[in-house]
Design goal:
Blueprint lengths: L4 E5 L5 H16 L13 H6 L4 E7 L2 E12 L2 E9 L8 H15 L4 E7 L3 H9 L3 E6 L2 E7 L2
Parallel strand pairs: 4-5
Antiparallel strand pairs: 1-2, 2-3, 3-4, 5-7, 6-7
Amino acid sequence: MSDGITIRPFAPADQTATRRLVLNGLGDHFGHIDETLNPDLDDIETHYLIPGHRFVLAERAGTIVGAGALIEESPDTGRLVRMSVARHHRGQGIGRALVTHLVAEARLRGYRRVLIETNDDWWDAIGLYRACGFVEFDRHSGDVHMALALT
């Protein structure tokens, strides 16, 4: 794993720190974030765990430094969402470790492909997903849509 990073499942006790991490990441990119537009982050357990999705955290020395989720888009397709790495921990392989972990989970679930969507000006994210094997298949309304075939 990337320099002392552990990837582990989200637990309800992580709610506040995880919400803040993801919102901070969005704020770093957009400059300001309307927190009310992200209601899933107010109760991660209800929105992700209870329906059977996978939400994981990257932790270094007891501090949450990254997060990401794999949700089921359809019976053979997963989607990565809520990918985020804390500002001072970016560029250290944590995002790649999260993607790798969640793609492995997608394989275990029998998905044939994994999708991801990001903003067309979020160059670091696009570069990460390309480096992990994702290929762009659509671009519109300011979003880039990418897929990784698992078969």
